[in-house]
Amino acid sequence: MALGWGAGLAVWSVDVRARLWRFEQAPDWSVLYAELPLALLGGTVAGLALWAVFARLRLRGSR
């Protein structure tokens, strides 16, 4: 799951400075309070799904 968090954080951090300063007047804080948690959640879900697939394959291989 830590690898999933790392992957989510890596995907989120691509071009974050340009997304944060989208507008000239003020920063766009939704990048931090909306996009970051969703990226971390998505990375966690992807990590858990990958783990479930590998666990399923390992069970089939042991039979």
What does this 3D model show about the protein?
It is built from three helices and no strands. The longest helix is centred in the C-terminal third of the chain and has 33 residues. The chain has one domain. The chain is rod-shaped and about 60 Å long. With 63 residues, it is an all-alpha fold. Helix 1 runs antiparallel to helix 3.
Strand runs, count: 0
Largest β-sheet summary: none
Distance between the termini: 27 Å
| Average of the residue pLDDT scores | 84
> What fraction of the residues are assigned to beta strands by DSSP?
under 5%
Low-confidence stretches: none
The portion of residues assigned to helices is: over 70%
**Shape verdict:** rod-shaped
Order of helices and strands: HHH
| C-alpha Rg (nearest Å) | 17 Å
Task: Lay out the secondary structure.
Layout: H1 2-13, H2 16-20, H3 30-62
Helix pairs in contact: 1-3
Quick take:
With 63 residues, this protein is an all-alpha fold.
What attributes characterize this protein structure?
63 residues, mainly alpha, 3 helices, 79% helix
